[in-house]
Amino acid sequence: MKKIAEGVAMLEINLNHFIIHPTLIWDEQKAVLVDAGMPGSLDLIRAEMEKVGVPFEKLDAVILTHQDMDHIGSVPEILAACRKYWQSPAIPLRCTHTGWTSHISKGRGF
Fold first, then answer.
1. Residues 107, 31, 2, 5, CA torsion sign
2. Which one of 59, 85, 98, 103 has the minimum C-beta count within 10 Å?
3. What is the pLDDT of residue 87?
């Protein structure tokens, strides 16, 4: 984990020597994860969040930058883990100038 700025950290997820760096953005009330890592990354994501002092339960949204497996792989695990405290996850898609971007959130917006 590398803290970039106040409320921004680059997580380091090492899954079988395949290293990726999702970004965590947070404030006092909620956290947003940019990209979800490979399948099987949930426990590593939780541990990295704890290292910066952000409990996983604070996760309010996941932003997916694109569809590669190292960016979307743990989405099913994250959704399953969050179902306990998310009312009804929404998955809106937005078209950006670089392509499609989606985010998964509690439906309350950012």
1. positive
2. 98
3. 60
Separation CA 108–CA 4 (nearest Å):
26
Distance of CA 16 to the CA centre of its chain: 20
pLDDT tier for residue 25 given thresholds of 50, 70 and 90 = very high
**Cα distance between residue 22 and residue 82, in whole Å:** 18
d(CA 42, CA 37): 8
